[in-house]
């Protein structure tokens, strides 16, 4: 591209040179004009000049005519001189011509140079303009095409961008969901790992427990083995002892009979025992039992009335022993069964006891106080309603204070089939009768509720209340009550209160 204007310039210079040459050369000039060659640097110029016309003698217009006029006197003699003159003139003309030629040359040289420069400039300008135009056209075209392509590309790009945006939006949503799911996964993993650790802990604990259990089992087996041996020994000695004791009993019976016979002989008074009483006549003199648990331990296994001697209680007491249920050895201290006994009694009567041990009775606060002061006793209360339902309430620890303490009741360790709460008082309550008001009420509970009881204000129970027969037992505030069994106004059919030493 760059070489093109240079080539054009070269061509142009060539053209200018030939044009000038053409101007100087004419077709006729070749014949009638003199041709001169001028070498100027790298260029050579050919000039064709007209031949100088020999001026005719006597031509006044010619400057030579003057010289000719000067020497026409001696034509033959002066012919040589004329000729010399003529040569001189020619030489001068030649000189002039040469000068003019030189001038012309100088002029031409100057003119050509300026023209050349001008042409050069114009050529460069024209060429530049043309090139510029070409370039701008090209550019225009390119721009047009480019803009077209650009628009298409832009359109395509925007479309792709729109798609990309949509895609990225959905991708964003997907990513969000992924994140949520991965979070959920993490959470689940954490939870499961926590569960696993807990499981492992449980497993190890179980294994430890199992191991210790196995050890215990082994120890127990060993113990059993040794105990078995000891048991056999004991059994043998027991058998021996029982044979010894039966021999002793025989001796005792013989002695007793002897004594009775003696007494009979001396006083002739009859000796009898109450109906249903199971006190063995041979046992009475020797063995003294504090309670039914001791009688049970001595071998008695049948329910019934037995005699006990409570320390610090002057009279021996007849009492009903529960030997057959709940492990036996229970000393019954209260019994209601048919309303045959009147429970509207005084302080003194409740202190000493009343009623029939084979039927309804109250053993007596003093005896119970003495018993429960010697050892730790538990209390069991058994209840029965008119519909045949039975219930029980048991207290692990039961104690009755002294008379000075108003036979205050102390209970703890409730367990039973009637509700979750005790019907008696877990703290304590003093005993009240119609003639001894020790309750926590401004009223007199014993008079309101009847009987003698550990009234509070006035409490949730009163097993010594008035006895109502079937059909009259409802809505009775003063009846045989145990609120948590059948409610506050229900008078029960049968009740028993019994005590037994703990661990006995
Ligand atoms: C030569 O030229 C000069 C002027 O340039 C002129 O005066 C003179 O007459 C010319 N001589 C001849 C012989 O033509
Ligand atoms: C330059 O261009 C002009 C018109 O644009 C024209 O008249 C002229 O002859 C051109 N010159 C040459 C040297 O081509
Ligand atoms: C280039 O294009 C524009 C419009 O497309 C037009 O106006 C202008 O004259 C063009 N130029 C040339 C040198 O063709
Ligand atoms: C892109 O091209 C489509 C057809 O291919 C046309 O309908 C649409 O209008 C164009 N959009 C732009 C911005 O040029
Ligand atoms: C049984 O009694 C005899 C004497 O009568 C005595 O030697 C023996 O040790 C007694 N046995 C037991 C186990 O008490
Ligand atoms: C029994 O009575 C005696 C004296 O009367 C007395 O010292 C003792 O503390 C009493 N025992 C009980 C358990 O009350
Ligand atoms: C209640 O007593 C029974 C038997 O005596 C026992 O098996 C049970 O565990 C006891 N319940 C409570 C709560 O003490
Ligand atoms: C029982 O009586 C005693 C006085 O002997 C008294 O201090 C105590 O507060 C009474 N207890 C109740 C539960 O009323």
TrEMBL record:
Gene3D superfamilies: Gamma Fibrinogen, chain A, domain 1, Gamma-fibrinogen Carboxyl Terminal Fragment, domain 2
Coiled coil: 171-223
An example Gene Ontology CC term for this record: extracellular region
Keywords per UniProt: Angiogenesis, Coiled coil, Disulfide bond, Glycoprotein, Secreted, Signal
Cellular compartment(s): Secreted
Listed InterPro entries: ANG-1/2/4, FIB_ANG-like, Fibrinogen-like_C, Fibrinogen_a/b/g_C_1, Fibrinogen_a/b/g_C_dom, Fibrinogen_CS
Domain (Fibrinogen C-terminal) ranges: 283-503
Name of this chain's protein: Fibrinogen C-terminal domain-containing protein
């Amino acid at each position: 591209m760059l070489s093109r204007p240079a080539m054009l310039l070269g061509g142009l210079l060539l053209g200018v040179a030939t044009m000038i040459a053409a101007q100087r050369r004419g077709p006729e000039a070749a014949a009638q004009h003199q041709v001169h060659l001028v070498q100027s640097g790298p260029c050579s110029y050919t000039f064709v000049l007209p031949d100088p016309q020999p001026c005719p003698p006597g031509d006044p217009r010619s400057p030579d005519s003057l010289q000719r006029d000067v020497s026409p006197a001696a034509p033959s003699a002066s012919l040589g001189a004329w000729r010399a003159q003529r040569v001189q003139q020619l030489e001068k003309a030649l000189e002039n011509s040469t000068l003019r030629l030189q001038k012309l040359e100088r002029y031409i040289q100057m003119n050509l140079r300026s023209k050349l420069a001008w042409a050069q400039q114009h050529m460069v300008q024209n060429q530049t303009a043309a090139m510029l135009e070409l370039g701008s056209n090209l550019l225009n075209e390119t721009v047009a095409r480019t803009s077209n392509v650009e628009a298409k590309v832009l359109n395509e790009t925007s479309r792709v961008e729109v798609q990309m945006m949509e895609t990225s939006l959905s991708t964003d949503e997907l990513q969000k969901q992924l994140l949520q799911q991965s979070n959920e996964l993490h959470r689940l993993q954490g939870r499961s790992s926590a569960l696993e650790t807990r499981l492992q802990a449980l497993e190890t604990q179980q294994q430890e427990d199992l191991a210790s259990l196995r050890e215990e089992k082994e120890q127990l087996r060993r113990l059993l083995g040794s105990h078995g041996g000891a048991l056999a020994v004991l059994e043998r000695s027991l058998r021996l002892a029982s044979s010894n004791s039966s021999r002793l009993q025989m001796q005792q019976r013989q002695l007793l009979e002897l004594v009775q016979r003696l007494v009979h002989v001396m006083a002739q008074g009859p000796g009898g025992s109450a109906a249903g009483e199971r006190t063995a006549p041979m046992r009475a003199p020797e063995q003294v039992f504090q309670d039914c648990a001791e009688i049970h331990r001595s071998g008695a296994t049948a329910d019934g009335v037995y005699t006990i001697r409570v320390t610090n209680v002057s009279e021996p007491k007849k009492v009903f022993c529960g030997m057959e249920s709940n492990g036996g050895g229970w000393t019954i201290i209260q019994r209601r069964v048919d309303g045959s006994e009147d429970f509207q009694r005084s302080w003194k009567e409740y202190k000493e006891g009343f009623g029939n041990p084979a039927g309804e009775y109250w053993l007596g606060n003093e005896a119970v106080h003495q018993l429960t002061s010697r050892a730790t006793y538990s209390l069991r209360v058994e209840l029965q309603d008119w519909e045949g339902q039975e219930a029980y309430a048991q207290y692990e620890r039961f104690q009755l204070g002294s008379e000075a303490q108003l036979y205050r009741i102390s209970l703890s360790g409730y367990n039973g089939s009637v509700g979750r709460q005790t019907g008696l008082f877990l703290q304590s309550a003093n005993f009240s009768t119609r003639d001894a008001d020790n309750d926590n009420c401004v009223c007199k509970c014993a008079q309101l509720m009847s009987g003698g009881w550990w009234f509070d204000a006035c409490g949730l129970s009163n097993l010594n209340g008035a006895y109502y027969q079937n059909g009259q037992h409802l809505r009775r505030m003063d009846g045989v009550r145990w609120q948590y069994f059948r409610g506050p106004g229900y008078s029960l059919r049968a009740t028993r209160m019994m005590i037994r030493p703990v661990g006995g």
